[in-house]
Amino acid sequence: MGVLIIGGGGREHAMAYALHKSDMAGDIYCAPGNAGIAQVATCLPDLDVTDQKAVRDFMYDNNCGLCVIGPEQPLVDGLSDYLRSEKIPVFGPSQAAAQLEASKSFTKQLCDAQNIPTAAYGVFDTADAAKAYVEELGTKCVIKADGLAAGKGVIMAENTAGAEAAIEGMFAGDFGAAGAKVVVEEWLEGEEASFFAFCDGENILPLTTAQDHKRVGEGDTGLNTGGMGAYSPAPVLDKDMCGRVLKEIIEPTVKGMARRGTPYTGVLFAGLMITADGPKLIEYNARFGDPETQALMVRMRSDLFANMIACANGEKLDNTVTAWWEDEVSVTVVMAAKGYPGSYEKGSEIKGLEEAAADPMVEIFHAGTTEKDGKIIAIGGRVLNITARGKDIIEAREKAYAAINKIYWPEGFYRKDIGWRAVERLERGQGKN
Ligand code: AMP
Ligand code: GLY
Predict the structure, then answer these.
(1) What is the pTM of this model?
(2) How many CB atoms are closer than 10 A to CB 51?
(3) Among 111, 150, 275, 304, which is most buried by a count of CB atoms within 10 Å?
(4) Which atom of ligand 1 is nearest to the CA of 104?
């Protein structure tokens, strides 16, 4: 049975790599794909994924029995609902269930209804009301555009003046329609980590954990990006803490979504703050993370296709379906075009990728690349994901950076400190990761 993956970033390359290893998956297609994905799948740069009928026709014509939706936008646009109505199994939630990512106020209200630990908050549709709540909190807080804002609609306000400026900006349209409603939140202190689980609408298959680096600069400073690196597992989420996340956050979410008549299927990606009082939900994503997925997929030893088709068919993720992981640590270092996340040049050539990937513990997942006359050309902001495994974070990091040293791409840059928190933790003797 063929598989169609929607997307063309490092996350989709990592999923294509894992699906390619499955004995159950047939031909793999990816729309649009990229130069790296082309090594394991047929890329479809001309298939317009916003044309839902064209996606259906491609799948019928090419015997594809599973559509895997990588990014959030097609989910929010209802691609999964349409394909399901045409009897095509889809890995990814319905438009209604994707509200968990598309509307922060929806998720907060679900947290209230299900007693899920999260930051105290208020939702507002006027600046005055939002400012009054900031006064009430009386300290630093977080201001968020309610809707999807490409990861940019969150402003950490150190003081009341900053919070008020952020609120004014959002209601003035800084984030377009996403800011028509504004969420004001308590600022949570702790360590962030991500937890992933497959869901079939009713049952949950917990996966593993990861931590990412959102800021562009070393020491987690500078502008927010889509993610400059990640590692898996996240040592702060030890076994006990994972048990709490499952019981206190994931299970009540899946139950609450089913009870509302919007059952959640696909992967649930929880962004968490591990506070002194335990885990609290920061946000949900209705899809896999990028670059977290790259770090996850190199550790996955079970069959991704079997997991995905079980989620898609609502076939009970019971104990006949498992997910298991190499007891190793993985690190992904993102190489981006100089200037990212601001403006950057396209069209430079990247050399040395084969030598860099020669170590069997290293995989290079492509994001913004294309192939032209046998050359790999950078055409995006985030361009490559150098991913390595090792017995601990230090070994995995050494391998990732050794691979980067073999890549010749003067127009690119990367952070040299990916995984620093886990390294410090290991050096303090807390945990083997
Ligand atoms: P979000 O898009 O909601 O995940 O927010 C982006 C980032 O902002 C998160 O990864 C956190 O680093 C930070 N953040 C969001 N909400 C909070 C909060 N209530 N307290 C502390 N940090 C937060
Ligand atoms: N790396 C964060 C995300 O995919 O949303």
Answers:
(1) 0.95
(2) 11
(3) 304
(4) 3
